[in-house]
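Request: Give me one sample?
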Amino acid sequence: MSTQSTPATATEQPDHETVWVRDASGNLKPKQLRSAEVYKLYPLKTAEVVSKKTKLRIVQAGEWLHDWKPAQSLINGLFRRKYVYSLTAPAGSGKTAVALTIAAHVAEGRDLGDHVTTDGRVLYLAGENDGDVMERLHMMAETMQFDLASLPLDFLPFVGGMDDIKATIRATGHEYSLVIVDTSQAYFSGDDFNDNRAAKDWAQELRTLADDLPGGPTVVVLSHPPKSADRGPYVHSAAAPSGTKLMATRTWTDMTTLCC
């Protein structure tokens, strides 16, 4: 990124540029310099030259990370809080089974294999075939031998706008450690799920579940592959906005695989 200057004005000297520099109090002050001197006196690493036009500011590494804190682990080596993950595979390949298994382990505080799990309340957004989810949950309770009446696992069998969903969640007063969206297509608010621009907008909307909800939950989004997917390994990025982690892949010959 380069330092940007203001357009020439009547008071600006020839062959000079007006740059905006932060003083000791952090205020922007105009300063005229010869164009050739701008980058010599204010190299990018100083982070003190600010573009008046865009208000963008290059930040020095130490300053940028001053308030940074590492994300908390939900399931060690697999899931972190405030991250959005996409679990993508064709219908009938086991997405719901995997998601319910993850949900039950977090709600029970049971380690998932060798992965240490931090217990917490879980919300499952059952937007696709909720009757099937109920049947699977009943069978899982018998197999894993947990008490459904006391399990901190909630369901929202509702398909609607993200704002309504978040408002409903906040009204409960609960802080969720994990939110599962089943499926991305069921809750998609655009016109064409396979349109790249619409998919990007939807990804940013899903991101708000992790950013806006109390507790900063992990969000796992179940998704069907795009229509253009070939018969091979793939991940579907529509549900995973920039800065998040795709952690689920599937092949047509292997079972659903969770990876780091």
About this structure: Helices lie at 35-41, 61-64, 95-108, 130-144, 162-172, 184-187, 196-212. The two ends are 33 Å apart (CA to CA). The longest strand covers residues 16-22.
